Amino acid sequence: MKLSVELSYYPLQQQDHIAAILKVIEKINSFEGLQVNTFPTATIVVGDYGEVMAMLNTLVAWTYEQFGRSIFVAKFIPDYVAN
Questions:
Q1: I need a labelling partner for 35 at 20 to 30 A (CA). Which of 5, 16, 53, 54 fits?
Q2: Cβ atoms of residues 82 and 16 within 8 Å
Q3: Strand order in the sheet with 70-78
Q4: Tens of pLDDT, residues 54-83
């Protein structure tokens, strides 16, 4: 099954929040096999359900290690791929 996730990231403790957001986007783009589209307010990730969920699992742990507590807002749409 394909999964689309619209993901927004909000670092809580960073003076330079833009740099933290850009590093998170860079990290998302480092995962192979996923389609990633970044917009001003969110990044959309599309791929196999297991791969997307594994990426999210790794990403959340990585951001905590890098930036401390943060907020992620996500919308999950199973079996949807935008044209």
A1: 16
A2: no
A3: 35-38, 43-48, 2-11, 70-78
A4: 999 999 999 999 999 999 999 999 987 665
| 6: phi then psi, degrees, rounded to nearest 5 | -95, 120
φ/ψ of 9, rounded to 5, equals -125, 135
CATH number at residue 9: 3.30.70.930
Q: Is residue 44 part of a domain?
A: yes
Number of domains in the chain: 1
22-58 pLDDT, tens digit per residue, is 999 999 999 999 999 999 999 999 999 999 999 999 9
Say which residue the tokens 């907020």 belong to.
Answer: 71
Residue 83, in any domain of the structure: no
| Cβ partners under 8 Å of residue 78, min gap 6 | 1, 2, 3, 4, 49
